């Protein structure tokens, strides 16, 4: 089967430092794939290459078999490749619900000509976005804070809202970068179950970078271990936890 994401022999250097070194990974459709590795292994750089925030020096990145290496981050977003983002400062003064309503790309109302020529269409689209945002806020369990300013939400609630924003689009794969950081255990449980439901009920594929091993163990299969810009090993979490090379890589780098 064609993998959803296929990173083929990608290289990226910063100055003289080869951060991603002839790296190939595949993310299968329908999986929640984890990516772990010691500090400085190149995980965030690889995410940036996949999301289109960085260009590789060589190699290719395919999305459902299509070469997207030359596409911008925005073009990749429209193809359903999403990366969660911190809520931007300017959105902190909007309510949680309004933050969700900001997301859908290509709203007719954003186009002045459409607004002028087809006001009925714009109103229908806005009503649809509002209806969808209410559904999403229920799904992520934030109905009770829907009218709170996003800036007043707790760290964990902001992460849930980030996840909700991905649901306002037609995501195929969501790249989650350290989403557990700073989230209390109760809300982390909510996040994990929401990710599982999105995967199971809505067919989302996830690639998850995480230092929190509990979260990786509960959520991810398979798990890819990156070290020095290369895949060291890939497999079930139990096999990885007992792999002497992985233990060495972690202790050697002094990481958690
Ligand atoms: N824009 C950049 N310019 C120069 N060096 C960079 C840049 N981005 C990353 N690096 C270097 O590339 C290496 C890999 O960094 P990266 O952030 O991808 O690792 P990581 O595995 O995500 O680490 P961590 O787990 O600590 O977040 C590090 O040595 C880092 O200093």
TrEMBL record:
It comes from the Bacteria. GO terms for cellular component: plasma membrane. GO terms for molecular function: ATP binding; ATP hydrolysis activity. Keywords: ATP-binding, Nucleotide-binding, Transport. PROSITE patterns: ABC_TRANSPORTER_1, ABC_TRANSPORTER_2. The keyword Nucleotide-binding applies. PANTHER family: CONSERVED COMPONENT OF ABC TRANSPORTER FOR NATURAL AMINO ACIDS (PTHR45772:SF9), CONSERVED COMPONENT OF ABC TRANSPORTER FOR NATURAL AMINO ACIDS-RELATED (PTHR45772). This is Amino acid/amide ABC transporter ATP-binding protein 1, HAAT family (TC 3.A.1.4.-). The lineage of its organism: Bacteria, Pseudomonadati, Pseudomonadota, Gammaproteobacteria, Oceanospirillales.
